[in-house]
Design brief:
Length: 230
C-alpha cells in the first residue's frame, strides 16, 4: 500500500540571554487540553472528537532517538506494539528523515496511518498543541492546504479546520465511538524514545520562529516547491 510522508521544517532558538545547554534526551508534552480544543472547534458542529492520550510508554534505543533514515523510520512501526486503532505518537530528539533526508524537522507522519514522530523540544514550545494536532491531522487523512488553518504547513497559531476537513477526520478508521458517552474519540499512545535509560536535563527554552512545509510521497518536493517522482 502506498504511504505518504509529511514533514515540517522548523527554525528554533533558545530563549533568554543565557540559554541553558541544549538537552539531549527527549521529553513528552502531549498538550492534551490544547489538542482537545482544536478537535472541538465550531466546525465540529457541537460534536467534538475527544483525543485520548494513554499513559506514556518509554522505549530506550540510542539508534532511534534521532530519526535519520528510512530504516529507522520503518523501525518505529514495530518497536512498541499497540492496537491497530491506536495512533503511535513518538517523541524523539530529532527528526532528520521524512520520505528523504532533511535536517531539523518538527514532525513526520504517515498519511493516513498510525505512526507519528515529533521533535519533542518543539512540542514543548508555544506551538506544541498546534504541531501535535497538525501531525495527528495527517494520521487521520488530512493533507497540507494553502488555506490558512491547522493543515497549512506553517506554524502560525491558526488551528482552524474546515467542515470538509472535519468530514475527512470523521471518516478515519482511527475515529471510534464511545457508546456510553455517545462521543467520538481517537486513542493516542505517547511513546518517549530515550537514548539512555537515565533521564537527562531538559531544556524548555525553545521558541519556534518559522516553519516551511515539505511534502514527500510519490511526489518529491524541493523546499517550498512541488514535483513528482515514481
Amino acid at each position: 500500500m502506498q504511504q505518504r510522508w509529511f514533514l515540517m521544517l522548523a527554525s528554533a532558538v533558545l530563549a533568554g540571554a543565557n540559554p541553558p545547554a541544549p538537552a539531549v534526551a527527549a521529553m513528552v508534552t502531549t498538550n492534551e487540553q490544547g489538542v482537545d480544543l482544536i478537535f472541538a472547534q465550531p466546525s465540529f458542529t457541537n460534536a467534538p472528537i475527544d483525543v485520548r492520550f494513554e499513559t506514556t510508554r518509554t522505549h530506550v534505543d540510542p539508534t532511534l532517538s534521532e530519526i535519520d533514515s528510512v530504516f529507522e523510520w520503518v523501525q518505529l512501526f514495530s518497536v512498541v506494539p499497540v492496537p491497530s486503532s491506536t495512533i503511535r505518537l513518538y517523541f524523539v530528539d530529532e527528526v532528520n528523515w521524512c520520505g528523504g533526508p532533511i535536517t531539523g524537522a518538527a514532525g513526520c507522519s504517515t498519511q493516513p496511518g498510525n505512526v507519528v514522530a515529533i521533535n519533542s523540544f518543539i512540542a514543548s514550545g508555544p506551538f506544541g498543541a498546534e504541531l501535535n494536532a497538525h501531525e495527528l491531522g495527517h494520521a487521520l487523512g488530512l493533507g497540507h492546504t494553502d488555506v490558512p488553518g491547522l493543515m497549512q504547513p506553517i506554524l502560525n497559531g491558526n488551528t482552524t479546520l474546515s467542515l470538509a476537513e472535519v468530514a475527512t477526520i470523521r471518516s478515519s478508521p482511527f475515529v471510534q465511538l464511545d457508546p456510553l458517552l455517545d462521543q467520538s474519540f481517537i486513542t493516542v499512545q505517547p511513546i518517549l524514545i530515550r537514548a539512555t535509560a537515565i533521564p537527562e536535563p531538559a531544556s524548555f527554552g525553545l521558541l519556534v520562529l518559522g516553519v516551511a512545509g515539505l511534502r514527500l510521497g510519490r511526489q518529491f518536493k524541493s523546499r517550498g516547491k512541488s514535483c513528482s517522482v515514481a
